[in-house]
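Example 3.2
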Amino acid sequence: QVQLGESGGGLVQTGDSLRLSCASSGRSISNYAMSWFRQAPEKEREFVAAITWRGGFTKYADSVKGRFTISRDSAEETVYLQMNRLLPEDTSVYYCAMSSVPVSYTLIHRRSSYNNWGQGTQVTVSS
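Structure, written as tokens:
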């Protein structure tokens, strides 16, 4: 069993920045892609950003393009989400996810592509 632990959330103001981290621990397994999703109250969990583990290819939701950057540290099995120019609509619980089975780049934005999830970290952006 692999555990994913998110950190870095908090309360910020519009225009501020935050960096989320997600580290994996536990049993060593293959890692094919990692991603960030978010879920606001009474809304569906939505895709934010993803990165393939070997090639480092990235994908972003349109709502965060140009503001958020996903990156990885392969040695530390950690993925980061740098969030700049935060907006109130970015307020959500942010979840980290990992796929331990091969996944096509065309599908790394789908929730169903991931079989390991973290517990989430709250990000609140005040106006």
